[in-house]
């Protein structure tokens, strides 16, 4: 594989011009996504007299969990639609339009349009997000380190948007009017769409057409006919489900819905893995690696259940129990949501160097050990929050440093676990089941999001005395899982993964 641009290719700083198109598209999309997300729970629990929805914490955090889980689940059909029906370029365009429609629907000061706006954002994100990332890879058919550098630049755009979104939308939403924050998110997505359309030519033919499922034209025609029918049936089902809720014919209770959705996702995920193990005609080595993947899937679900307290429980803790004054200025609680993206921008290059440095000295931790480190750092973060909670119980407000330190620890945990997770799935999966197991990875991520919402609902604004105990329980479980995984990491690597298959944090 070459590390240089193909002869005659138009580049910017050695990279395809299309990378800048996708960089700014994703930057604006993430600005809108994280900007709205920073406001979501705060808006739902805010009193109606201040323009909020006046929901209780359990309901609001359950809705948050359902929303974030749905975003991951819709990425699966979103990728399929692009691959088999309309291509990645059009998927990104239509997805962005639906996202913008969702944000502007949220901006309407009506309780009736709120859930419709969330549905639009979920569907649009499922179309845009996976296909923008896939399209980056298509810009580098030669592979090599230039492709890796291109993805690094692309992820800088993601985190730049994630950093700016809460600052802009959070300030407008909390300081001026909730719905101004949602408008800002929609405007951000529109800016992304405008630049995408104006620079679309830079993508060339990449992602223009869907990939045929069959070489035979007649079979392909029948496949497309069935696929389009399935797509429109799916759209009709969504319309009916939403319509039943708005008509009052069916009442969707968020907490039970989140609980039962989590149970269904867990059973589906484990059921598929068991079917694959016993009836997937796997070799002995493939079965061992599938067992290792199952362990990693379950651990990462627990990881995201703790990590995603950021947008729910930690957001409420910042609003209610944190002293938000710095040098005499009272900043919005939602600004804490920018910290993770900023820390990733600052720390990711260091971690990339650090793992390589350890690898050269034969000290690079194994994949299970990195997952264990991720869980331990998550747990330590909750121990910090337990200390902050004791300050609140004593009748004082916690200083911003408590949340800042927690986000730092959780970001370190993310950098230990998340980069290696998708790579582990691609490396350990049997080739003929690779796509379905990648979908299973996202399925367990969605499970983690649902758990995060349900866990956040355990905290009560009316019983702050319980906060230290709940934080301690989460910390004990997280650290306990991490320690157990660390103790068995060598066994998992040697017996299940294989000593010859190390998966590093740079995806190789």
UniProtKB/TrEMBL annotation:
Keywords: Cell membrane, Membrane, Peptide transport, Protein transport, Transmembrane, Transmembrane helix, Transport. Signal peptide: none annotated. GO terms for biological process: oligopeptide transport. GO terms for cellular component: plasma membrane. Residues 1-204 form the Major facilitator superfamily (MFS) profile domain. It is found in: Cell membrane; Membrane. GO terms for molecular function: peptide transmembrane transporter activity. NCBIfam families: yjdL_sub1_fam. Belongs to the major facilitator superfamily. Proton-dependent oligopeptide transporter (POT/PTR) (TC 2.A.17) family. This is Peptide MFS transporter.
């Amino acid at each position: 594989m070459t590390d240089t641009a193909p002869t005659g290719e138009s580049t910017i700083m050695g990279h395809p011009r299309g990378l800048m198109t996708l960089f700014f598209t994703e930057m604006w999309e993430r600005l809108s996504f994280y900007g709205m997300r920073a406001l979501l729970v705060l808006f739902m629990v805010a009193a109606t007299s201040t323009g909020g929805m006046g929901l209780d914490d359990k309901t609001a955090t359950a809705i948050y969990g359902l929303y974030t889980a749905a975003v991951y689940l819709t990425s699966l059909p979103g990728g399929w639609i692009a691959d088999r029906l309309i291509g990645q370029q059009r998927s990104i365009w239509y997805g962005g339009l639906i996202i913008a429609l969702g944000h502007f629907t949220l901006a309407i000061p009506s309780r009736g349009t709120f859930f419709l706006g969330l549905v639009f954002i979920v569907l649009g994100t499922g179309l845009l997000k996976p296909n923008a990332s896939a399209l980056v890879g298509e810009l580098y058919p030669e592979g090599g380190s230039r492709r890796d550098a291109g993805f690094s630049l692309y992820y800088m755009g993601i985190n730049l948007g994630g950093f700016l979104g809460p600052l802009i939308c959070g300030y407008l939403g909390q300081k001026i009017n909730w719905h101004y924050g949602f408008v800002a998110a929609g405007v951000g997505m529109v800016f992304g769409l405008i630049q995408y359309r104006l620079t679309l030519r830079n993508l060339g033919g990449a992602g223009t057409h869907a990939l045929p499922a069959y070489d035979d034209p007649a079979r392909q025609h029948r496949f497309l006919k069935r696929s389009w029918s399935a797509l429109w049936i799916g759209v009709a089902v969504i319309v009916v489900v939403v319509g039943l809720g708005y008509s009052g014919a069916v009442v969707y209770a968020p907490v039970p819905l989140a609980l039962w959705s989590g149970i269904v996702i867990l059973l589906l995920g484990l059921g598929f893995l068991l079917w694959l193990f016993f009836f997937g005609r796997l070799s002995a080595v493939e079965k061992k690696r599938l067992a290792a993947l199952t362990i990693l899937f379950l651990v990462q679900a627990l990881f995201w259940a703790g990590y995603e307290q950021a947008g729910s429980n930690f957001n409420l803790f910042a609003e209610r129990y944190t002293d938000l004054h710095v040098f005499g200025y009272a900043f919005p609680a939602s600004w804490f949501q920018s910290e993770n993206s900023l820390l990733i921008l600052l720390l990711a290059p260091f971690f990339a160097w650090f793992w390589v440095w350890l690898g050269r000295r034969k000290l690079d931790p194994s994949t299970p050990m990195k997952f264990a480190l991720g869980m331990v750092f998550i747990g330590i973060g909750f121990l910090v929050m337990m200390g902050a909670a004791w300050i609140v119980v004593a009748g004082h407000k916690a200083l911003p440093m408590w949340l800042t330190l927690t986000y730092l620890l959780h970001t370190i945990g993310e950098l230990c676990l998340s980069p290696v997770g998708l790579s582990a799935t691609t490396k350990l999966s049997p080739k003929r089941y690779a796509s379905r197991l990648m979908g299973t990875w996202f399925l367990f991520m969605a499970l983690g999001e649902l758990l995060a919402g349900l866990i956040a609902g355990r905290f009560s604004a009316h019983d702050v005395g319980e906060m230290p105990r709940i934080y301690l329980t989460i910390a004990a479980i997280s650290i306990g899982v991490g320690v157990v995984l660390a103790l068995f990491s060598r066994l998992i690597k040697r017996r299940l993964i294989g000593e010859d298959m190390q998966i590093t944090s740079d995806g190789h």
